[in-house]
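Q: Can I see a sequence and its folded structure?
A: Here is a first one.
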Amino acid sequence: MNFQQLRSVREAARRGYNLTEVANVLFTSQPGVSRQIRELEEELGVEIFERNGKRLTGLTDPGRGILQIIERLLLEAENLRQASQEYAGERSGTLAVATTHTQARYVLPRVVQSFRKAFPEVRIALQQSAPEHIAEWVISGRADVGIATEGLSQFDELVSFPCYRWSHMIVVPQGHPLGDGEKVSLPQLAEYPLITYDVGFTGRGHIDDAFRERGISTDIVLTAMDSDVIQQYVSLGLGVGIVASMAAEHNLAPGLCAVKAAHLFAPNLTRLAVRRGAYLRSYVYDFILAFAPELKRQEIETALSA
């Protein structure tokens, strides 16, 4: 039994049993992957995968149990590598942070700047995507830390911590009727074409819920992942924008004005997640505590080992 065999099994399950993709991920050949899997099955005396001819189609009942053990073994192997670097006093490495565009653009710059001053030898890799992809990257080990608004608490493989709350704001061109200083209502807002985030991004669910609960139909004419893009199209007169408060407060496009909307939509909670059972280098803890100062290292360590 060797780690290449274990990785072949794990990646086969992760990649939908597509051995070509597994081979690409592991930098080997498809026949090599097949051989590694078959040799492990022969050594264990059980079939891990169901097959249709030579093609893998799923996990057997024993395979599902074996995969869980393989995941733990590979996680502990990675933990051992991280711990050895930590105990050897190495201050270099890579911190991979998976997050949304809004967090990367408006919240993380201050944290990253202070972190770089404290750990100049640590390279930071920012990966931006939707919350479900962020969770997948942290679970798979592609990212050390995940930061997003929605969904991170729904994965058993992750430990997530609440960090801070924020609301949405309305952005309109200067002189627009909604920018006259009066408190905006949902029916008033729904009278205009709307521009906001893609489904699953930056609290979009709370926006949809607010209109649905009131039975108000909307005309969402354009969606985007990026607050700057939303503001650009508002500036062109395509509609009224709904963006995260930090985007409107820190980078409002010229010619636009921001209108409070906290009374219209439920507040959003940004969460930070790490993989359950993972060994975190000291600089990872420092990054987490810089992002969420109200957390305590002991609290994180206790949650990770639970």
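Q: Show me another, different protein.
A: A second, unrelated one:
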Amino acid sequence: MAETITLDGVEIHLAAPDDVPLRWVGQPELVTQVLAAWLVLGDEDLPLNPRLIGKPGVGKTTLAYHAGRILQRPVYLFQATMDTRPEDLVVTPVIAEQGRIRYMASSVVSAVIKGGVAIIDEGNRMSEKSWASLAPLLDARRYVESIVAGIKIKAHPDFRFCTTMNEDASTFELPEYIHSRLQPQIYIDFPDRDEERRILKSNLPFSDDEVIEYVLTFLQAAHEADERYSVRDGINIARYALKRLAAGEGGGGGARSERLPVFLQEAAAMILDVNAARLFMELLHGAREDL
């Protein structure tokens, strides 16, 4: 059951923290950078509000969530969209039983109250107006104000904030006064080959090494060609190809060694595009020639 608190005589219903299977496998230095931004060095110091930027699928949200769990604090995820309104970020009134108004705190405000970690995912999809509602929360004032509920909510000392931003999917150009509050900027790039192999194995424990190596080679070639394909895409390609193999077991259709390349190309086309399928075909053809 959702927790309820009373602030200045107003009953507020809190959102529950997120408990999701996000596992960061990769550069420990990036985790250290996020944790360093959240450090408080003394009574006069305040935590920073890092923004994690990079291409879609490189693990920005996973990194932020992992860092929050390291602090052993509740983590709250908020998915930003073009339609996000200021009240969506703070407190939303809803109609309850007998026509009464119930005030529902957003995941961000719930983190503010509980001393948790708030992560706004894809923050550059939100408008300046929405970000402006959080401006006093992200500077020395450390509070957020709800116009609809008529209350001002001060942040718990343990409250921490982070946002992710896709560098190629920005809908709104945020003004300097917002960017200056979202510091430092931490860039997450595509992982190197060994890191990417560890990520694939961690997320595909049911896969054999042959599939892992095919997908790894595809991803590394894509990074070299400056394609947008990410490890998340590679995981989904492997998952679908393996499901296709499993669905066809017992039904004939040729040996596994013959069906796997076909299903990998098919998965690449369906999950990404025909260019990805073509790249897979070239790599698979090259692998056969090396045998």
